[in-house]
Amino acid sequence: YAEAHPELHAELTRRIAGQLPSGWEELLPRYTPADKAVATRKLSEIVINALAPVIPELVGGSADLTGSNLTRWKGAVDFQPEPTGLGDYAGRYLRFGVREHGMAAICNGMAAYGAVVPFASTFLNFISYAAGASRLSALSRLRVLYIMTHDSIGLGEDGPTHQPIETMAMLRATPNYLNFRPADGNEVSGAYMAALQHADRPSVLSLTRQNLPQLEGSSVEQTLKGGYELAVFGSSARARDLIIVGTGSETSLAVETAKLLRDEHGMVVKVVSMPCLELFAQQPCDYRKSVLTPGVPAVSVEALSTFGWHKYVHLPIGIDSFGASGPYQQLYEKFGLTPAAIAAKAVKLVKYYKHQAVPELDLVL
Question: Of residues 7, 11, 25, 100, which has the active-site annotation?
């Protein structure tokens, strides 16, 4: 076969080996703060449209939420019997139906068989329905991409049944997962780069319904480290008074809070973007300490459960109750996730540690 069809043979052996086509990373889009605010689910769609034509082994679909997950690329053909007129068996887009567990199990089977890179999609909260099979993705070391949208109370009016609170804590507690909450377009591209580069573990990309700004200092490459210094607000010649760690949609909220603390309280505030705790935990100790500076009070801001954040910060700010139904701006106000509310807590924290030593965080191992 290699002699008769050398190009097809090379393509087949590449896919079986789990190697990706050369140069695919160069197609990932990059953004500047001058670019408009966009929901990260839409930014994900842009990435999928860039990669699907050049990574022909990328196969997957949605659990009956294609219009919301935005996972179908232009020119995609549904995997369907040809007589139905809906597609053919050369198609790469799967209509899984409303069965999240089955969807994850099917993707596990494809990944275990090899020569394909499968992805599955639904709302983040509904990965709980797939917990048994998605856990096996991690246990079996399979490269399955879980493209999860509507990642927080930011989905708004669908209410607490659809708003994930504890879901990310569950996923972060699962060994061998990579869990991403990208803050903007560069971090979405970085999340896809990391997810595709790690052939021996599944990834969850948690994406927003609401638009997010493209941030100054965000980086595709820095996303691969899991966490990094995004910006410092205040005099660079002074010691930092506070670190604010943001993740996903709350990173831009951390930036606005830092500006408020600088302007109204004269503080010097470092903002850290933390799109993936698992990748950050893999970095050398010196790097982690350069990001989360010892001796400086740190808070985290995430519109999800605060469970697990005490390892990284002195005060996690989040939501430890179920969500609520309403426009997402009102929900952020209700749950105290506004620059003013966060700044008030941060000021108290900084004042508290002026009179005693700031505890060292668990960043050694």
Answer: 100
pLDDT for 364: 57
Residue type, 149: T
In whole angstroms, give the CA distance from residue 62 to residue 109: 16
Give start and end residues of each alpha helix (H) in 202-298.
220-223, 250-265, 277-281, 285-291
Cα(93)–Cα(88) distance, rounded to whole angstroms? 10
3-state class of 226 per DSSP?
A: coil
Question: Are the CB atoms for 204 and 191 separated by under 8 Å?
Answer: no
> Where are any strands of DSSP class E within 72-115?
78-79, 87-88, 93-95
Compute CA distances 364 → 228, 283, 285, 287, 294, whole Å: 17, 11, 6, 11, 11
Answer whether 109's CB lies under 8 Å from 145's CB: no
Listed in sequence order, the residues at least 6 apart from 14 whose beta carbon sits closer than 8 Å to its beta carbon are: 21
pTM: 0.97
Residue 204: both structure tokens together:
């969850």
Amino acid letter at 69?
N
100 in catalytic set = yes
DSSP annotation string for 148-185: EE--SGGG-TT-TTT--SSHHHHHHTSTT-EEE---SH
Q: Report the pLDDT averaged over residues 313-341.
A: 97
Alpha-carbon distances, residue 341 vs 21, 267, 318 (angstroms)? 48, 16, 12
